[in-house]
Write a structure and sequence with these properties.
The chain is an alpha/beta fold. It folds into two domains: about 140 residues, 3-Layer(aba) Sandwich (Rossmann fold), CATH 3.40.50; about 160 residues, Rossmann fold (3-Layer(aba) Sandwich), CATH 3.40.50. About 40% of the residues lie in helices and about 15% in strands. It is built from twelve helices and eleven strands. The chain has a five-stranded parallel sheet with strand order 9-8-7-10-11. α3 crosses α4. The two termini are about 25 Å apart. The mean pLDDT is about 95. Bound molecules: phosphoric acid mono(formamide)ester and norvaline. Norvaline binds next to α6. The site of norvaline has 9 residues, from α6.
Length: about 325
């Protein structure tokens, strides 16, 4: 183990961290973002290397981790299934043993959650989930930072996470990796998710890994899910890996398009978020995603700031 690791942690799902750690991370993200905006050099990860393994496509995850690591003084190695032995059936455990002897940190985007767990179990260094079929914790980190920036009071300790208690997030669409992660965040941070999915695409609390099902409520009609919501959010109808179901999904999800009517029944100052990439005219209208309540570009940018805080935390622990 390299100097600097006292306790190795992985970040494989949102519930891997406690509320108090999130308060710390969001404050670090705020400070790190401020430095970036002021063109102040901040390179605590000099000589550290991040391996990024992509078994699915990506724009935001790749750019945010890669740019973030370079900005912090480190470097990155980019691997895909197609250009590594991962695509030629080398066991994931062997890949983990080898890669983690050469780098300081690994980010993986893959299919089953069990795959990243197997990798982590054989890794000498921290592993970050960059999206699996079940979870997308880095995205929810960015979404929460964005919500806090826009809506939470800022005090001496940072954004007031307590202000999330009692808030309502409306999830309109597929009971997918994003929905599962929202549920975990709600359980830890004390807000409620109003979930509306077509039948057959519901969230499964066992897959989401939530113990307390009072962190979410299910609505048949997406309009009812949006009523009174502080944040309305959605995602693609067909996630990566489910392309064979695309035709059936287009039919099933036709009424799960976030539109002006849904935004009108939410709180007057409700925000709209989408992890992107978006399909205007499918899960959201152009009017909503390009409208005044949408914060999707801040949300995308915040991937980088919050992941810089995450990498710093996993590699160096608490600063100061
Ligand atoms: N939101 C997100 O993870 O985007 P990419 O698929 O482009 O990485
Ligand atoms: N649910 C989507 C998110 C993409 C960032 C997917 O898994 O493809």
């Amino acid at each position: 183990m390299k100097p600097g690791y006292s306790l190795m942690r992985h970040y494989l799902q949102f519930k891997d961290f406690r509320a108090e750690e999130y308060a710390y991370l969001f404050e670090r993200a705020r400070v790190i973002k401020q430095r970036f905006k002021n063109y102040e050099k901040y390179q605590p990860l000099t000589d550290r290397t991040l391996a990024m393994i992509f078994e699915k496509a990506s724009t935001r995850t790749r750019v945010s981790f890669e740019a973030g690591m370079y900005q912090m003084g480190g470097s990155v190695v980019h691997l895909t299934t197609g250009d590594s032995q991962l695509g030629r059936s080398e066991p994931i455990e062997d890949s983990a043993r080898v890669i983690s002897r050469m780098v300081d940190l690994v980010m993986i985007r893959t299919f089953e959650q069990s795959k990243i767990e197997r990798f982590a179990a054989h890794s000498r260094v921290p592993v970050i989930n960059g999206l699996t079929n079940e979870f997308h914790p880095c995205q929810i980190l960015a979404d929460l930072l964005t919500y806090l920036e826009h809506r939470a009071p800022l005090n001496a300790q940072g954004y007031d996470l307590g202000s999330l208690k009692g808030k309502v997030v409306a999830w309109v669409g597929d009971g997918n990796n994003m929905a599962n992660t929202w549920l975990q965040a709600a359980e830890i941070l004390g807000f409620t998710v109003h979930v509306s999915t077509p039948s057959g695409y519901e969230v499964d609390p066992a897959v989401a890994g939530v113990r307390d099902t009072s962190c979410y409520r299910v609505f048949k009609n997406p309009l009812d899910a949006c009523r009174g919501a502080h944040l309305v959010t959605t995602d693609v109808w067909t996630s990566m890996g489910y392309e064979a179901e695309n035709e059936a999904r287009i039919k099933a999800f036709a009424d799960w398009c976030v539109d002006a009517e849904m935004m009108a029944v939410a709180q007057p100052d409700a925000l709209f978020m989408h992890c992107l990439p978006a399909h205007r005219g499918e899960e959201v209208t152009a009017e909503v995603i390009d409208g005044p309540q949408s914060v999707v570009w801040d949300e995308a940018e915040n991937r980088m700031h919050v992941q810089k805080a995450l990498m710093e935390y996993l590699l160096l622990g608490r600063i100061g």
